[in-house]
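Notes from the 1:1 (GR / supervisor)

We went over the backlog. Supervisor wanted to see one worked example end to end before approving the batch request, so GR pasted a single chain during the call. The sequence is below; no edits were made to it. Supervisor asked that the structure be written out right there so they could see what the output format looks like.
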Amino acid sequence: MQRLAGIDLWDEIYRPGLSVPVFYMPGNQWRFGLIPSVEIAGATGAEAGESLSYGTALMAAYAITPSLTLGLGGGVFERLGQTEGYLFPVVDWKIGDQLQLTNPFEAGPVGPAGLELTYRPNENWVLGLGGAYRSYRFRLDDSSTVADGIGQVDFWAPFARVGRRIGKHLLLELNGGATIDGKIIIEDRNARHIGETGYDTAPFFGLTLQAKF
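Structure output shown during the call:
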């Protein structure tokens, strides 16, 4: 297995994407979800047409009690020459009037799935602690040491967030956390493994504006 430390493969990575979560509740107990998404992920100079990943996640959950909903979700994604599937638990547990354990399906610091414990002291504020495992792939440019190759980054991401409601329809959130136990894998343009290396813990910060109408 080849180590990659010291090899300069890219300057910056761009990952614009679009996700449209759709939820359906036919009654008081069942909840179904469909979360299709598409993403262009590539290093500076990579061609957009060669950097496309897409797929969808599905979920079904059942309200066991008015305060506890459990279920199962799964996703299938085509990620730059690699088709992947995964399963995840669906949890919505209202521990009390102000405390709740859920999957952060809405926009957040690490995207959908994972688990998050939220505290709402009043109708205007929300505090959250959570985490998730993440893996994403991106295309390298044709002038890289591995021309048109593929990079993959895997990591665990604990996070915290604080949100403040603005008026009736807007929620402004500040979030931050760290990527830990990170690993970088490099493949050639045909998705054949070349080498891998770990990387140090790195902080991240974000600002999210949500609108609900």
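Supervisor's comment: The first strand starts at residue 2 and ends at 3.
Batch request approved.
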